[in-house]
Design goal:
Layout lengths: L1 H21 L7 E5 L3 E8 L9 H11 L4 H9 L6 E6 L4 H17 L6 E5 L10 H4 L7 E6 L2 E7 L7 H9 L16
Parallel strand pairs: 3-4
Antiparallel strand pairs: 1-2, 2-4, 3-5, 5-6
């Protein structure tokens, strides 16, 4: 009996040791200094990073100044947006991200979406994240807002909302009017 217990304990310890060897360390809130763009965020981020300098300059201003379309907000709540999860790809060097990401976060906040349901991933100018998440989601432009239900993508908004308002485009995604929104080909500045 004692030998059996010793074997089980030894196997358990070995298994845990092997698992820790294969575990991938995920770095959150990676910030880098670049020669061309100054400070840049890369990879998975928490919202707190955008409330720090130099990112707070554009984030806080756009968040505070954006006026949400109230009827659309009511409709988002009616469509139970808080039951969805989101993956956001953005570039802290990108003007479209500077405009749309704070607006998106204000809409989510006002709609009652828990921040834990929003994964934020910052990419470089090549639209690459340190852990390669952009490849899993085929990210070509930023910002890209991906809406998911039960782990499956139900739609996305790429670069800017077609209607001019993120909240209106989100309603269309939730109602499955547009499974995937892909903006027409444009000359890329970034």
């Amino acid at each position: 009996m004692k030998q059996k217990l010793t074997r089980i304990l030894t196997i358990g310890i070995l298994t845990m040791s092997l698992q820790s060897c294969f575990a991938q360390k995920v770095v959150v809130n990676r910030e880098v200094d670049t020669q061309t763009d100054g400070k840049m965020l890369l990879g998975e981020q928490t919202l707190d990073q955008f409330k720090k300098e130099p990112f707070s300059d554009w984030y806080t201003k756009e968040y505070n100044n954006y006026k949400i379309h109230e009827e659309s907000l009511k409709q988002l709540k009616k469509e139970k947006i808080s039951g969805y999860s989101f993956v956001v790809f953005l570039g802290t060097w990108c003007e479209d991200s500077h405009r749309e990401f704070p607006r998106f976060m204000k809409i989510m906040n006002e709609a009652g979406v828990n921040q834990n349901k929003i994964q934020i991933i910052a990419v470089n100018r090549k639209k690459e994240a340190p852990n390669g998440e952009e490849g899993l989601f085929n990210i070509q432009r930023v910002p890209t807002f991906i809406v998911k239900k039960y782990g499956q993508e139900v739609g996305r908004i790429i670069e800017y909302p077609e209607s001019g308002f993120l909240e209106k485009d989100l309603i269309n995604v939730l109602k499955n009017k547009d499974q995937t929104k892909i903006q027409p080909e444009v000359n890329e500045k970034y």
